Amino acid sequence: MKDYVGAIDQGTTSTRFMVFDHAGRVCASHQLEHRQIYPQAGWVEHDPMEIWDRTQEVMHRALEKAGLAPSDLAAIGITNQRETTVVWNARTGKPYHNAIVWQDTRTASICDALAREGGQDRFRPKTGLPLATYFSGPKIRWLLDNVPGLAEDAARGEALFGNIDTWLIWNLTGGPDGGVHVTDVTNASRTLLMDLHTLAWDKEILDILGIPPAMLPEIRPSSDPTTYGSWQGVPICGDLGDQQAATVGQTCFRPGEAKNTYGTGCFMIMNTGADIVPSKSGLLTTVAYRFADEPTCYALEGSIAITGALVQWLRDNLDFFDFAHHIEDYAAQVPDSGGVYIVPAFSGLFAPYWQSDARGVIVGLTRYINKNHLCRAALEATAYQTREVLDAMEQDSGVTLQALKVDGGMVYNNLLMQFQSDILNVPVIRPQVAETTALGAAYAAGYAVGFWQDLDDLRQNWQVDRVWEPMMDEATRDRLYKGWLKAVQRSMHWLDA
């Protein structure tokens, strides 16, 4: 039996390839960043060809580091930034346009027009999602409307749509020479085009948006023993959107179990089992995963657009520090934020508000405030936004969370994790492998080929690294959170129609 599984983790700011052993340990990894393209305010793009080039390079370099060949891998899984939209020509393999990133807000007018008949929740009974610029469907419509010749090519069946998982799988399996055009149920559930009940593209919604069905990939399980295709003889048989992959990597397989991933944005997912739980509190109802022909597992999700990206903004736009991890050093110089709150509504407010007309604000400024206070306020913004999502999740699910499993790059910030525990008033638990997104993709692929036999096999790999316990008194917690909610109100309705 082969000893390793590989995982492509294609994120908002970088791409990496990781090699795992049977115990879920990282044997090798290589990571490269790609450009963030901002054509105008509110627009965010990536170059799909650059991402494809980076993917090939990180795969080669990680295997080289480990002294392995592709033939040493039992399978490959893929996880990806969700909702980011690519449309390319099936004959040439060339994209018609840069990828439109999930943070992009250019489709606001399309979403507003769709909401005039049936409201923002027009498609929610089928898709579990509100009308928002976040999702892929309106992005496809924008491309069809604005890229010369694309609508005609799409009508002829020559234009293919995919989120980044689909784009990479198609290229890995041959591209113009027989590439496989597939996605999985988790990524499909983020397009605003898939019916959660049937796990199929919804004809009525496609008709309303004017999207030719031939553009869309085949929807497959997240872990598929029949495999999507192969790369250099290695089966590609695991595919999960990044937050669902982290849910699998955290082994949240039982209803009520939840995780929170701290990356460019912040995403909390709670497993609801076989139940499709409609949200009345501004959350998303989504697919958690589907393994082979086993019953589909659903989830509630709270999506926050800007968390780690706020730290990057302080680093890149304001030159506060040279490296993102230095923010903790500055924040630790002060005991609190001095009454300052930063609401990072750069792309509007996501869960639980879904207001695309909001914009970022800094409130509570006085002459006393310095850079250290702003750094601390930036970290605290992540924790406050998570508190809002958790409150909504408990209200929708009726489950009171006893502890929060956390993962992603920001969980190595001890100051943030302690404040997160304080403001939630629950323990925060970091596993030994905190980069669980790639691990979840590896689990899905390895599970498909029998590398891991069952879910208990995966649970045995999960080990605690550190636990933060709440230390804040109730009065302080309530006062700080009340101030946050007041600050959020100041960010709303900033843009005129």
Report on this structure.
The longest helix has 27 residues, at 371-397. The protein is of the alpha+beta class. It has a seven-stranded mixed sheet with strand order 17-18-16-15-21-22-23. A six-stranded mixed sheet has the order 3-2-1-5-14-13, with helices on both faces. It has a two-stranded antiparallel sheet with strand order 4-7. α9 (242-249) crosses α14 (436-448), α10 packs antiparallel against α12 and α12 packs across α13 (414-424). A hairpin with a 3-residue loop joins β15 and β16. The chain is globular. The model has no long low-confidence stretch (mean pLDDT 93). The protein contains 16 helices and 23 strands.
Low-pLDDT ranges: none
How many helices? 16
Helix-and-strand structural type: alpha+beta
Write down how many β-strands occur, each being a DSSP E stretch of 2 or more residues: 23
What is the averaged pLDDT score?
93
Helix residue percentage? 25-40%
Identify the overall geometry: globular
Rg estimate, integer Å = 21 Å
Biggest sheet statistics: 7 strands, mixed
Distance between the termini: 60 Å
How does the SSE layout of this entry go?
Elements: E1 4-10, E2 14-20, E3 26-33, E4 45-46, H1 48-66, E5 73-80, E6 85-89, E7 99-100, H2 108-115, H3 124-127, H4 136-146, H5 150-155, E8 159-163, H6 164-172, E9 182-184, H7 185-188, E10 194-195, E11 200-201, H8 203-209, E12 218-220, E13 229-231, E14 234-241, H9 242-249, E15 258-262, E16 266-273, E17 284-289, E18 297-304, H10 308-316, H11 327-331, E19 341-343, E20 361-363, H12 371-397, E21 404-407, H13 414-424, E22 428-431, H14 436-448, H15 455-459, E23 464-468, H16 474-491
Parallel strand pairs: 1-5, 5-14, 9-12, 15-21, 21-22
Antiparallel strand pairs: 1-2, 2-3, 4-7, 6-8, 10-11, 13-14, 15-16, 16-18, 17-18, 19-20, 22-23
Helix pairs in contact: 9-14, 10-12, 12-13
